[in-house]
# Entry
Amino acid sequence: MGREKLSLEVAGVTLIERVKDALAGCCQEVLVVGGGYTAGERPGGLGPLAGMEAGLARARYPLVFVAAGDMPFLTHGLVAYLLGRLDEGGVLAVVPRYRGRLHPLCAAYKRTLLPRLGAALDSETRAVRGFVDGIEQVEYVGAELQRFGDPDRLLMNINTPEDLALARREARR
# Structure
């Protein structure tokens, strides 16, 4: 987008508020990290993985949902489902993988991953996907996401002006 995007509106509600509303329904704690909202221990510019570290470090609960702040159609049902799968299973993370694409910024993680996350950053890993690939106990969910709506819509994020225009059209449907 070339600019700060969390304050952009879809159907009269900012992107960050839409995400916070989806999380608030099933998360006892909502932390906003990055984008000038909450600084982590590391210097800026290290990307979402450093934001995940800052969030997990501040989280008070053992299960953490990580969501990009630019997901206009994230739903309470999807968040609750992913957290429930994490709580039930013997895994460290539950991550959507739809149409061959991983969505690690719309996923549930155990807070116990914090030391591994820090080690990944210390070894100069910057990609969240690279970090997730290194976790041996991950449950990937795909087709079952359809029970919550169109996965392409649920997992959409805003990266371009065209994405924003599409989200605004979708919100009117």
Remarks:
- The domain at 9-165 is CATH 3.90.550.10 (Spore Coat Polysaccharide Biosynthesis Protein SpsA; Chain A).
- The radius of gyration is 15 Å.
